[in-house]
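Support reply, case 0932

Customer input (verbatim):
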Amino acid sequence: MRGRSDIQTLSDVVRNDPIIRKIQSLAAVATVADSVPLTHENRRIVKQGMKDMITQQGSTIGLYALLTELGLEDQIDEVKIGYKLAPVLNAPGRLLDNGAMQSLMLMIYEGEYGKAQTMAKQLVDINQTRKDESAKWSQLTEDYIREHHMGNDYPLVVHMSGIPEGIIGIIAGRMSELFQTPCILLGDNEETGQLKGSCRSDGLRRPKKIYWIIRRSFWQDTVVMPWLPALR
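Our regenerated output:
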């Protein structure tokens, strides 16, 4: 059996390994961005990863460049990861085909720092586009609901032609909060020609329960709803 000193030595070696430290940094970002409870092992992963990621030795070149672009290279916490870093990493996947790969390539990038800066700026620009589109479609959707006197509907079911698929969930959440009702927001899927949507609850009913209430109601009226399985 290994002695306590041997175990401690092995632990120190693992903790100081540069590759392990970079993996811990990436794991910390992923843990916070996925909104998992920060308890037990999750808390330890995030705590150690945040210490590592603000050092050039404990962060990939790509991640460090993004932190610098966002002004987070000197101090980081779970709030800043959740509200500043994660949205930037998430934005390309919402707006671009294969956009998630663009974020991944930056996160694992270990090449020239100048190129990493360019990649980081591209992600920040994409996130700004996501913000602009979200603000635009939030206003358009709210205006549509008010103009059609739908504000008291429970649940609120809205079809907005032309809304980007990647922000449907964001807008549905905002409408649910604004009108205090579950919201099912539908957009057009150009590839299939069908409707694709997202459901957000008001906290009183689970989205799955809303799904079955609406489905039973439409079945009674013998209306076919091919878009229902596409809700997420």
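We compared this against your earlier run and they match. Two observations from our side: The chain has a mean pLDDT of 84. The radius of gyration is 22 Å. Please reopen the case if you see a mismatch on your end.
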